[in-house]
Amino acid sequence: MRQVQAIGVVGWGRMGGMIGRYLLGRGWRVTAFDPSADARGALERAGATPAGSASEVAAASDLVLVVVVDDDQVTHAVAGDGGVLDTAEPGTIVAVCASVRPDTCTALAARAAETGVHVIDVALVGGERGAEQGGLKLMCGGPREVVDACVPAFSAFATDVCHIGDVGAGQVAKTANNLLLWACLRADVEALRLARRLGVQPGTLRAFLNVGSGANRPLAEWGMHRLRWPRKDLEVALAVADDAGVDMPFIRALAPLMDDLSVDDLADLR
Fold first, then answer.
1. CB of 206 closer than 8 Å to CB of 192
2. CA 140 to chain centre
3. Range(s) for CATH 1.10.1040.10 in the chain?
4. In which residue ranges of the chain is CATH 3.40.50.720 found?
5. What's the CA angle centered on 107, arms 105 and 112, to 5 degrees?
6. pLDDT tens across 87-135, in order?
7. What is the rounded distance in angstroms from the CA atom of residue 113 to the CA atom of residue 91?
8. How many other C-beta atoms lie within 10 A of the C-beta of residue 259?
9. Strand, coil or helix: 82
């Protein structure tokens, strides 16, 4: 395993860009790639070294953070033409930071192991606000010694690094976390709407609910959620549940209910 000194970032979007800026601010050497011209301009202005492909990032890096959108993009960035595995030296660590299926991570880890490259999954918990504050929580799956080798770099943008288990376990943990997040948020909305109709103002009620047995984090952080990801999170959860033969009737009912919510609905219940 290579000592982590140079870091690559594949995907300089909302999350990847904020992570990259924190790494640069802590003095890490960062090489980055994004197919978007706007993102390329942003990464150069931030001080990262631009690369023309994921493979160019890997050639310059000991640890590569893959911060793209979905399973297809992760697979292409790691194992496709011009991907990380084209040039990654043995001992390189590839951290899948996107929210994807656990089996996507295990398949990539098996393929990478053929060339001596380590793939771990590093699920990001805390959303954009956590990334903006350098306070993400990382749910990690893979060999503990590989995860431990990344902790100095991860500490630049995260406050907690949790080793959950084997490759894919980090994605399982994040899926469970997100199910509880969106379930609580939707239940909070309906409870506050009922209370308001019955003459109790939501802002007044929240202060009391947060010290009661119904307390939950979305309620305590009311109005701060941007609702960018519930559909994707719930689709991933339901797909994984189907494959595992686990019936999730509550989550199936929750998915369209989350589609109906907007940040304006949350603001209306302040």
1. yes
2. 11
3. 172-268
4. 6-166
5. 90
6. 999 999 999 999 999 999 999 999 999 999 999 999 999 988 899 999 9
7. 10
8. 12
9. coil
- Burial call 224-240: b when 16+ CB within 10 Å, e when fewer: ebebebbeebbebbbeb
d(CA 232, CA 9): 22
Q: What pTM was computed for the model?
A: 0.92
Residue located via tokens 């009661």: 212
Tokens of 45: 């202005």
CB–CB of 25/59 below 8 Å?
no
CA distance 24 to 12: 13
Per-residue pLDDT tens over the stretch 19-46? 999 999 999 999 999 999 999 999 999 9
Q: Are 82 and 71 in contact (CB under 8 A)?
A: no
**Cβ(139)–Cβ(162) below 8 Å:** yes
Give every strand in the sheet of 93-96, ordered side by side. Answer: 49-50, 29-33, 6-10, 63-66, 93-96, 118-125, 136-141, 158-165
Considering the domain 172-268 in this protein, what is its CATH number? 1.10.1040.10
Fold of 6-166: Rossmann fold (3.40.50)
Residue whose tokens read 């893979």: 142
Residue 246 tokens, joined: 């686990």
Helix 102-113 / helix 169-197 crossing angle, nearest 10 deg: 160
Residue listed under structure tokens 């305590």: 220
| The two structure tokens encoding residue 90 | 């043995």
